[in-house]
Amino acid sequence: MSAVLPTPSDAEPTALYGGRKKGRVTVRDIAEAKRRGEKWPMLTAYDCMTASIFDRAGIPVLLVGDSAGMVVFGHESTLPVTVDELIPLTSAVVRATEHAMIVADLTFGSYQTGVAEALTSAARFLKESGAHAIKLEGGRRVEAQARALVEAGIPVMGHLGLTPQSVNTFGGYRVQGRGEAGEELMADAKALEAAGAFSVVLECVPAELAQRITDALSIPTIGIGAGGGCDAQVLVWQDMAGLTERPAKFVKKYADLATVLTDATRAFADDVVSGAFPAPEHSYR
């Protein structure tokens, strides 16, 4: 009698972080984590070397964010970043990983004008970089785009609250959703869920509001400056690792790589100047 393989519904659930799932994390895995009440981590990534480290560490979702505008390209905001600039970064992250789901940001100006533009931009990320999902900013104003992408087979992660592409409208990087504005954010979150988004980032919103939205949605919320009630948490990796000079209030620094790299750089320079490097063991015969 042949062995009967378990169907997905019969299989033991695998934790997103710390589990032993084979292959890539999928939207189904993320949905199941929400049903189990499991919290999970997410980080940004923009190159093959750090992406590989994060993947081996078990981070289940990596975001190739338009935050690259600041931490990679040196701009003051995310606005100048283009699809053409982000696709090579996304490709590098995809090639360097085996486990994590790779989500790519739709950049400013690549989806706002309508469904056709959004489909073209998102399709480029999936076809040219191998990304597994895209993220876009906004709620009801991009509901049509989100719905069209999902119907076309493109997983969509939403982004609400402080949406950096709208920084000029907000008048700076400010907390969003206080007072009556909280109900607008709730409506936006429900609209994204109805459109088929598989998750929603909540950035810089009051913790109580983020908790209410998390409880109201069947899809996971991913917090960044939104308190501990969200289903997941994301940070820009340079903030997390201590490379950012003045990180936001919500950032917890888990290392001080700025000091480590500064010390290593000075040690290298001192060795070159003194003649200590290269030593005989660093030379060929």
From TrEMBL:
3-methyl-2-oxobutanoate binds at residues 66-67, 105, 135. InterPro entries: Pantoate_hydroxy_MeTrfase, Pyrv/PenolPyrv_kinase-like_dom, Pyrv_kinase-like_dom_sf. Its EC number is 2.1.2.11. Mg(2+) binds at residues 66, 105, 137. It catalyses: (6R)-5,10-methylene-5,6,7,8-tetrahydrofolate + 3-methyl-2-oxobutanoate + H2O = 2-dehydropantoate + (6S)-5,6,7,8-tetrahydrofolate. CDD domains: KPHMT-like. Pfam families: Pantoate_transf. This is 3-methyl-2-oxobutanoate hydroxymethyltransferase. It comes from Streptomyces stramineus.
